[in-house]
Structure formats: C-alpha cells, structure tokens
Design brief:
134 residues, four-stranded antiparallel beta sheet, single chain, alpha+beta, elongated
C-alpha cells in the first residue's frame, strides 16, 4: 500500500533524475559545441595555408614573383584535397589575391560571433588575422 507521501516522493525523485540526466547531457554537449566552432576556424586557416602553398609552388614552377594575379585554374594542380580546390568549411568564399598577398576567406554568414563579410587571412607569423569589412 502506498501512503499519502509516497506519490510526491516519486514525483520528486523523477524530477531529480531528469535534472541529473539533463546536467550530464549539458556537460557532454557544451564542450563539443565550443570545440566545433574553433575547429571551423582551424579548418579555414588550414585551407588558407593550402592555398598559399599552392600559390607559392605555382610561382616557383612558372618563375613568377610580385604582383601577379593567380587564378584557381593556375593552382588547381597544386591543391591536394579535394583535387583542384579546397572544400569550404562553413560556406566561406576564398580569395586568392596576388602572389605578394596572402589568400583570404570571406565569411558568407556569421561564424564565431564574426559577422557576414568578415575576412580571415594568414599573416607573416604563420598565424591569422581577422579583418572586418564594411
């Protein structure tokens, strides 16, 4: 037989279990979401490095330097994965620029609290810099 207090005890216990499960799910998901966002930026930077390396190799093979504009067709044989071009991470658009400039990625929608139109490019220290465009 159940007494008058047992029903409310079961309800309280059920809510406690639900709260504990929700907390465990939160503990697992939040770090993965944060890691996912930073991995997107890392993916973009890796694509920029691959494009920059392809531009430099093309320049060496063709004896070019300075303000020469490089096209996707020029560097396609030097880009490995996927063959001929890089795969966008978040739908960004890549801008090759001239040989004497680093390639850039322009965000086509907000990523990591950066607005659409933000550009990411490599800098001289093999890092990257964020450029807000208006």
């Amino acid at each position: 037989m159940s007494g008058p207090g047992q029903s409310s005890l079961r309800v309280g216990f059920t809510w406690l279990v639900i709260a504990a499960v929700a907390y465990l799910v939160w503990l697992v998901c939040v770090p993965n979401i944060a890691r996912s966002r930073t991995s997107k930026v890392n993916g973009i930077i890796n694509n920029l490095r691959q494009l920059d390396g392809a531009k430099q190799q093309w320049a060496l093979d063709h004896g070019q330097t300075g303000a020469v504009l490089v096209t996707e067709q020029d560097i396609a044989p030097y880009v490995r994965h996927p063959p001929g071009r890089v795969r966008p991470v978040t739908g960004e658009r890549y801008i090759l620029n001239r040989l004497d400039q680093s390639p850039a990625a322009e965000l086509t929608h907000p990523v990591l609290k950066r607005p659409k139109g933000t550009r990411i490019r490599l800098n001289e220290t093999n890092g990257y810099e964020i450029i807000l465009t208006k």
